[in-house]
Amino acid sequence: MPEILVVGSVAYDSVKTPFGTAREILGGSATYFSVAASFFTRVSLVACVGHDFRSEDLLFLESRGIDLAGLEHHSGETFRWSGEYGQDMNTAQTLETHLNVFADFRPTIPEAYREVDFIFLGNIDPTLQRSVLSQVNRPKLVACDTMNFWIDGKPKELRETLRNVHVLLINDAETRELSGEWNLVKAARAVREMGPRTLVVKKGEHGVMIFTGEGTFAAPAFPLENVFDPTGAGDTFAGGFLGYLASTSEQGDAALRRAIVMGSALASFCCEAFSLDRLLTLTRPEIEERYRQFQDLTRFESL
Amino acid sequence: MPEILVVGSVAYDSVKTPFGTAREILGGSATYFSVAASFFTRVSLVACVGHDFRSEDLLFLESRGIDLAGLEHHSGETFRWSGEYGQDMNTAQTLETHLNVFADFRPTIPEAYREVDFIFLGNIDPTLQRSVLSQVNRPKLVACDTMNFWIDGKPKELRETLRNVHVLLINDAETRELSGEWNLVKAARAVREMGPRTLVVKKGEHGVMIFTGEGTFAAPAFPLENVFDPTGAGDTFAGGFLGYLASTSEQGDAALRRAIVMGSALASFCCEAFSLDRLLTLTRPEIEERYRQFQDLTRFESL
After folding, report:
1. What is residue B88's predicted lDDT score, i.e. its pLDDT?
2. Interface predicted TM-score (ipTM) of this complex, two decimals
3. Cα separation of A8 and A37, whole Å?
4. Rounded CA gap, A101 and B28, in Å?
């Protein structure tokens, strides 16, 4: 029985950054999430891939202890995305998107997972997100991602999904768009009134804020000297955040704050190489060392 | 004998924000700086105003204990600036700038201030900044602001000034432009090699970072529910930062971090009303309470 069920995309990405180019590398929101969470807990991945999905990638995911019973294999091709980053490395310009087998993805939760405690609904159609929730039995915590495409395109369906979400993880522009409020404090309150008791606002190089019933917490991003490829950093953050949370017995404010820092630590490693390359060699002591570096980065004394 | 000497502009601003309009209100970099610093220490203001400068504004500055012996009164009109903010409230669009008497400002440091310990060189021509330094006798700490206009327009003169600056306070775009490096960590190192042992990078709503020989510290901006007018927030930050630093006997890493948070606290109040209005009624207990709120905003436990 995995502790976290993640539903989302598995893809092959082609990425160009000012520092290099990589083609057909393993990507997708659910992939990054699963690998990051696997440092803390057991994960089950519900997604679909095509006939061209490489066995080495399956083996890699299995080597991380990720349960692949929910990974469907279809006859078409695997989801492809290609994008390019400019100097600022904050947002990719999408060059091509080929949904391929992902276009007809209708997530089916294996019977054995229906009692799972933690769920992460990756950035997919809010109608599909809701269908996932209808297949599981009262999870302890439902976390969810979404994007402008759904905020604009399926606002009613998204609102319906949000009513059943505990933690929403989106970026600052999405928070503003979803709420219709420019001020982030007001925007956060409006989003929390839609259902999620906790809102995590991802701000890329500017860090993360979390709004809960108990207050607000702000963490900076780790100041990296070499941001090689930020693709997947947001999903890696989410995986580190939820993975850590699932591994503790707490869900209060203090645990949420530690989880935010843990997610930020994982995300910082993700940016240091193409694809999941840095996560391949990452160790628990390295993660804990970076957590301590976050403490150095943010500590200051009382007056 | 004041503890801080500030050289910069005193102006009348006309500001339009989504929340209202104010005309001919007291502003200018040296004004905001002085008033913020006056909560912590004695300040002497070196600037110039025109015949139309209002006596009530002189009285207000004096009421803050600011020494005005270095404030020159010229026969022309006081510096005027007008600008407008959109919804994002991060950057003003300048509508008009009339330098007026400020165009011929050649700062003269009164004899009595030449042994001052702390100097803040507001955002003026780097040649004038250097002339200020040539008139004082080895201050303990020279802090300096500048902007894109000088980075582009007088790069050699600015470099010459920076060689004699201990603390440079600029924003992230200016840090990148001055260094020619996009990555902020590399950019900060390059700027510190130009002279300033300490670089403070102001990021508006995303907070502040400080790069010193001992490491890096990041503080968020205070999440305000009502940003009414951000004009002067950067100078108010600088005044709170340097004022606090001048009021302590320390200048090490721990004191710099507390000073960054103190500057951030002052800047957050500045944004809550037009002009210096919020600072008029601000009390020391309110400042200390906001400092504690910054602790709540950023604290997290060890693993």
Report:
1. 80
2. 0.95
3. 14
4. 60
Residue B2: its pLDDT value, please? 60
Confidence of residue A89 (pLDDT cuts 50, 70, 90): confident
What's the pLDDT tens digit per position in B168-201?
A: 999 999 999 999 999 999 999 999 999 999 999 9
Q: A271 falls in which pLDDT band (50, 70, 90)?
A: very high
pLDDT for residue A92 = 87
Largest Cα–Cα distance of chain B, in whole Å?
64
Q: What is the DSSP string of chain B?
A: --SEEEE---EEEEEEETTEEEEEEEE-HHHHHHHHHTTTS-EEEEEEE-TT--HHHHHHHHHTT-B-TTEEE-SSPPEEEEEEE-TT-SSEEEEEEE-GGGGG------GGGTT-SEEEE-SS-HHHHHHHHHTS---SEEEEE--HHHHHH-HHHHHHHHTT-SEEEEEHHHHHHHHT-SSHHHHHHHHHTTS-SEEEEE-GGG-EEEEETTEEEEEPPP--S-----TTHHHHHHHHHHHHHHHSS--SHHHHHHHHHHHHHHHHHHTTSSTTHHHHH--HHHHHHHHHHHHHHH-----
Distances (CA, A) of A48 to A70, B31, B34: 8, 62, 62
Task: Annotate B284-295 with DSSP letters as a single string.
Answer: HHHHHHHHHHHH
**C-alpha dihedral (A250, A256, A262, A267), degrees to nearest 10:** 140
Instruction: Please state the rounded mean pLDDT for residues A211-219.
Output: 96
The per-residue pLDDT for A2 is 60
Cβ neighbour number for residue B10 with a 10 Å cutoff: 30
Q: What is the pLDDT of residues A163-175, one digit of tens each?
A: 999 999 999 999 9
Q: Which residues pair with A215 in a beta bridge?
A: A212
Q: Smallest CA–CA separation between A102 and chain B, in Å?
A: 36
Could you tell me the two tokens for B240? 């709170």
Cα–Cα distances in angstroms (integers) from residue B261 to residues B215, B264, B290, in the given order: 16, 5, 9
Q: Give me the residues paired with residue B7 across strands.
A: B46, B121
| pTM, full prediction | 0.96
Judge residue A194's burial from the number of C-beta atoms within 10 Å of its C-beta, 0-12 exposed, 13-18 middle, 19 or more buried.
middle
Is the pLDDT assigned to residue A286 strictly greater than 70?
yes
Residue spans of chain B under pLDDT 70? 1-2
How many angstroms away from the CA of A217 is the closest CA of chain B?
A: 5
Enumerate chain A positions whose Cβ falls within 8 A of a Cβ in B. 87-89, 182-186, 203, 205-207, 209, 215-220, 223-227, 254, 257-258, 260-261, 288, 291-292, 295-303
Q: Which residues contact B40 (CB under 8 A, 6 or more apart)?
A: B240, B243, B244, B246, B247, B262
CA distance A84 to A98: 16
Spell out which chain B residues touch chain A, with contact meaning CB-CB distance below 8 angstroms.
87-89, 182-186, 203, 205-207, 209, 215-220, 223-227, 254, 257-258, 260-261, 288, 291-292, 295-303
Query: Chain A to chain B, count of Cβ pairs less than 8 Å apart?
Result: 101
- Residues pairing with A46 in the sheet: A7
Which pLDDT score is estimated for A95?
Answer: 94
| Phi, then psi, of A11 in degrees rounded to 5 | -145, 165
Look at A291 and B299 and tell me if their CB atoms are within 8 Å. Answer: no
